[in-house]
Amino acid sequence: MSRPLIAADVDELVRALVRPGDHVHLAGTPSRPNALTYALCRVFGADGHLTVSTTAVHSSAHALALSGVADRVIAGFAGDTYPSPRPNPLYADLEKGEPFSFEAWSLLSYVQRLIAGAQGAPYAVTGSLAGTDLAEGKPDTLHRVPDPARPGEEITLLAPLRPDVTLVHGVAADEDGNIALVPPLGEGAWAAYAAERGVIASVEKIVSREELRRVNDRVVIPGQRVLGLTEARLGAHPQALRTNRLAGVEGYLDDYAFLEEIVASCHGAERGRDWYRAWVTGPGSHEEYIRRLGGRRRAELRVPGPASADDDFDAETETWAQIFRCEREAVARAGAVPAVATPTAAPAEAIASAASAECVAFTPPTRQERLIVLGARAVAEQVRAHGYDTLLAGIGVSHMAAWLAAELLRAGGQDVKVVAELGMYGFRPEGGDTFLFSLLHAGSSEMLAGIPEILGGLVAANPRALGVLAAAEIDESGTINTSRGTDGRWLTGSGGANDIASSTDCVVIAPSSRRRYVTEVGYRTSPGHRVREVVSDFGRFVREGTEGGFRLATWLPADDADGTGEAGTATTAGDTAAADGPYELARQAARAVATRTSWTCDTSRVTAEKPVTAEELTVLRTLDPQGRFR
Length: 630
Description:
The protein has about 625 residues and is α/β, with parallel strands linked by helices. The protein contains 19 helices and 25 strands.
């Protein structure tokens, strides 16, 4: 067996091993091959004519659109994930084939295709996609066929996904190409095995065979599959890399300030071109890219540990609290949010403090905070009533509601496991970091795995899992749209939402709006038959069974007259409605439904929702000390 090419840098590696017209896969681990992606854009530009597959197009992957290197992209998401999920204007005309043709999948079905490719199977079988628009327009890759074991039923078969080459960033490798990674692993090594020609890898450090043998339990990709590799320090930047100091390699945190710079640029007048010039074509090499980041910024991103000899700064070992402070200060310097004090109390301690008294100045909840609290109540009640043991939330207000529900349940003596689709199980949010996929949360996780284990084993195959989802549109059947707006513009896509909604019971959390609560969604991203409850900022909609429509079960009026402004504690309006009796409560609730949704649902059995409590708000603001979700 020949050894892999060991190149001087990422550009040389790409130039040697990638061909115009290739199908290139960007590995969907939490630490993406961003240095290699930039090199791909620099080396080929608009002459690449590549097909690119990746779990999601966001942050640094926007370089694919800005460079023109890809003619076609296969993914489950295209938009922004930080500081919150949102459409990116680069993809407004995605359905028209601009900036590339786009083949949309759900996250698990996408990985299932990779697994089939890796195992040499003719098809993958999926429980996702059926009955949604994600299953349409794929005659060569998706087949609905009769189920041989259940007459009259159908199953969904997917063609295997087999790229020409897979790009990976790892922690370390030896000269034989064996690559070590530290979990969580996202899609894992499946794309390495599925690649027709093999893997092109960057790693933080190339080590000797002997050194890698000492950590052979962390070798995820065997050298047999590797075409070439190179060292690229901070090769996943601006995303994080978890290392556990394997082979002496220091880990680093998500560069939130940099991520926000990308988002601001893409939403600005130049639509990302200024960022692309400054950080992709301008540096001309990964070495210059690292130099431009500067020593101070690199220091702020380092996971706590002894200072490295090659760093150009003087620093002592830092605590997690100091690291968190550095993250926030870096974002503040970029003009994103004001710097604030690092939180010192865990959420459970905040509950105890709130119960004991004036530890927190109680300011009224914002409309979004009220939505999150009502969502958390719904989730907690579903857990208590139906015995769910696992919560998997989509990114945004939905994951904040799931986190809050878990903390409130824990304070009441009931433990429920919070999981994240990229591979974290049983974690508690770390250090006030509200990013769902922050690798800081891995430290508190009970298990670290990948997408198949979480979306497959712990959700699709687990009857005690509860999904917590968001929606750009939702209709009275519970069907969710997160893909296409009413004006035809692309939103973001499914991510793992379709997989969750296809297989397990769900609570959907969505702010009230006539454009959001619609009579019929413009695109069926996720099915609605497993949606048990829909939570708005003024009340909670429930239904009995899976066939009927929703009714408004609870109502919490806003402080403002028409319910369109900032929501407060709602004591005055609520007391008035209660004093006038159930008829007046139902009348006001019906007005709210009519003015703030396009639904026509029953409000005759509505009950008053209690105002947001100091305890709930204290725990929420402990989870979100910077007010990202206010």
